[in-house]
Amino acid sequence: MPAYAWRGRNSLAQPVSGVLDAMTESAAADQLVSMGITPLHLELATDRGAMASATPAPGTWRRQPVVEQDILIFSRQMYSLNKAGVPMLRALAGLQASASKPAMVELLKDLRASLDQGRELSVALGRHVALFGNFFIAMVRVGEMTGRLAEVFLRLAEHLEFESSVRSRIRQAMRYPTFVLIAMAAALVILNLFVLPVFGKVFASLHHELPLLTRVLLGFSAWMLQWWPALLALVAAAIVGVRAYVATPQGRLRWDTYKLRLPVVGDIIAKACLARFARSFALSSQSGVPVVQALTVVAQTADNAYVGARIAQMRDGIERGDSMSRCAAATGVFTPVVLQMIAVGEETGELDALLFEVADMYERETDFAIKGLATAVEPLLLALMGGLVLLLALGVFLPLWSLGEVAMGAKG
Predict the structure, then answer these.
(1) Alpha helices (H) in 117-148, listed in sequence order
(2) What is the pTM of this model?
């Protein structure tokens, strides 16, 4: 596609310039006008330097990839532009001109090129499934088919905002426990490699029998001091092996199943996954997606492989002719209140509205559980730290006390 170098003035009468892609010179002028720019000069960009200034370097693109927040902003902007009746090509051209991240500029440029070739927006987004995901693309396709694209973008933006908020709050709640565990691990390494060996030399020079706890600590310290390179390599190999196993379908299923059974975090993960399912399915149902197709898309985009497998089980049961409430009960992942609301939704024909209420309920419970996460974890961390300090203190000070008793006995 040809590139045109242009100069003009924006709505504040300030001089601006740049390079944009368009099929013809008149199309480039139309794009500038739609962006609120009055073109003063327009010509084919034959200077490679001008092209390079508008096209991001590959290294810059790799350093700043498109993230979830960019997709969220894109959804909000597309909702506003579609609601205002701006044509799709002009909307993408305006977003491309206003984007500050080079990777987002390249993404919007590719979307425009696909639309220029006659593809639908959902097909153009499908070329970047790793960024948008199957659910996002499927919902855009439904919006195109039903003529409710603006509403779909609004719902997608709300959906992405909720997921981003949940992840951010979980990371924030787990920040303190993570730092404490890292500090404890670092303290153990320092004590075993540098502190306990010094005490071992002092105790050995006194030729006195040491308590069992002290001998165990000194033996572990000597073993760690001798084999720490092999231990470090073993830990690194274990991390790589576990990551490779979790990347397999079977490993991912087992790991996600185990996450749901964790004492404190498991309940939060389960509620967040079910909130995502309820909102995603309600959004699909409200947009007119058939139930089986909606469950297929939601199962593929579930954050948890175990929950995704249970949703796929629901889909298979519905395909066999069972009711949704009965299939949901057979999965074993929904609470009785949710099952009752699904049954009422089937009877009244208001399944999507009730599922939105289920999503709101799970979101409130998730928010409450996240707020209490630090409070629930703090006693466990204090008990662990107290036990570690007690173990080290007894291991170091018991020999000193016994030596003091021996010295006092010798004086007597």
Answers:
(1) 121-126, 129-146
(2) 0.62
